[in-house]
UniProtKB/TrEMBL annotation:
Protein's recorded name: DUF3179 domain-containing protein
Upper lineage: Bacteria, Pseudomonadati, Planctomycetota, Planctomycetia, Planctomycetales
Source species, domain of life: Bacteria
Record InterPro entries: DUF3179
Pfam families: DUF3179 (PF11376)
């Protein structure tokens, strides 16, 4: 049976163990952890996905959005059309155990290293939200912690306070990814049910389309984010952190035109290329201290309330 993923607003009811998770020692106020609608695993995370070569992926369209990861001589694309329904893909990337995660409510793409200390975590979807952002959990643990996608840390349970290491990635169109990585593989919809050639679910339909068209949010978030103009809540930004500080890059930093610009944050540098047609930011160079996240502005502001807009240097770089 296919479970629905349409989210409903929280009823306002509170309990000590929502969806079976112990929040007694939560690092964030318990009343701000809300049920998203589906129960634990009602949105089914994927593990060890089936992949196709570029030549085999004839169902992929050039403008399909993908999260792309390239490291150690490997490249792989994770379609947003699949992540809209599954939110987490646990994968083995060469010697690296990674989780590719996407929260449709925040349009946030985050890739993390699943190896934490001596353990390799297999993430599942808890059915709970904090700041309208997905909370993940360890499916292999009998007493699982809840992990915040955008905060990159466990917020409850025995691993509370433990941080996740981000993995560099891109959020781009399929054609752009393949042009740069022609030997890439791509995750197939067969990952959802390897027994069949596909799933009864229509992955070409975005179940969040109505939400994306509306200016408002479905769930309460940090008041700092709600101070934004309604037109800015779901504007796309590149959230940046470096040396304990945070900022964000918006389209207006590029004059809303295609260009590559250099930005500085806390003594660290990154170069970002902006595509105004696709509304995409691509980091082409970054110092080791820099990490970044693609998301809606409200989501970044909710987790980084003092974050400010970064302005580029006067130098305009070759746009390649």
């Amino acid at each position: 049976m296919t479970l629905p993923v349409t989210l409903v607003q929280d009823s306002g009811e509170r309990d000590v163990r929502p969806n079976g998770f112990d929040l007694s020692e939560s690092l964030v106020p318990r009343e701000q952890i809300l049920r998203g609608g589906p129960p634990k695993d009602g949105i089914a995370a994927l593990s060890d996905p089936v992949v196709l070569t570029v030549d085999q992926a004839d169902a992929m369209r050039g403008d399909d959005r993908v999260i792309g990861v390239a490291m150690g001589g490997m490249a792989r694309a994770y379609p947003i059309s699949i992540l809209n329904y599954h939110e987490i893909i646990n994968d083995q990337f060469g010697d690296h155990a990674i989780a590719v995660t996407f929260c449709p409510l925040c349009d946030s793409a985050v890739v993390v290293d699943r190896d934490v200390g001596s353990r390799s975590i297999e993430f599942g979807v808890s059915g709970l939200l904090f700041n309208s952002n997905v909370l993940m959990y360890d499916r292999r643990s009998s007493n699982p912690s809840l992990w915040s996608q955008l905060d990159l840390r466990a917020i409850s349970g025995p691993m509370a306070g433990t941080r996740l290491a981000p993995v560099r990635h891109e959020l781009v169109h399929w054609k752009q990814w393949v042009d740069r990585h022609p030997q890439s593989t791509v995750v197939s919809i067969r990952s959802a049910d390897p027994v069949r050639s596909g799933s009864r679910r229509d992955y070409t339909v975005n179940p969040y389309e109505a939400y994306l068209r509306r200016p408002g949010l479905m769930f309460p978030v940090n008041p700092a984010a709600m101070e934004l103009p309604a037109s800015d809540l779901k504007s796309l930004v590149l959230g940046v952190t470096a040396n304990g500080q945070s900022g964000f890059i918006a389209a207006d930093a590029f004059g809303n035109r295609a260009s590559s610009r250099r930005f500085q944050l806390a003594g660290a540098s990154l170069v970002v290329k902006f595509d105004p047609v696709a509304l995409q930011f691509r980091v082409t160079h970054a110092d080791p201290a820099v990490s970044w996240t693609h998301s809606f502005r409200f989501a970044w502001q909710a987790f980084h309330p003092t974050s400010v807009a970064l302005r580029p240097s006067q130098e305009e770089l070759p746009n390649r």
